[in-house]
Amino acid sequence: MSVWIAIAGTAVGCYLVKLLGLMVPAGMLERPLVKRLAALLPVALLAGLTAQQTFSDGHALLLDARAAGVAAAALALVLRAPFLVVIALAVAVTAGVRALGG
Q1: Cβ within 8 Å of residue 69, ≥6 positions away
Q2: What was the pLDDT predicted at 57?
């Protein structure tokens, strides 16, 4: 029963956060600082999530095939490769390092 209470609480919380966002005055959203934060915050959160998922096993720093794939993708991005090429290269490098026992 406590699982359903948690689900209901989460649903109510999500609804309230959405409602709170809709209640913010339009003038506040037009401020330059708010616009800059809205543009940069998703990028920072995604970068943090990517780093945590790539270099951690939950308890310690971990360097494995995922790190090699991210490094290959970063190099491809620096060389201005198309997005699909970046993804394909990261997948190939990760798979290759895992196949070699890394």
Answers
A1: 90, 91, 93, 94, 97
A2: 83
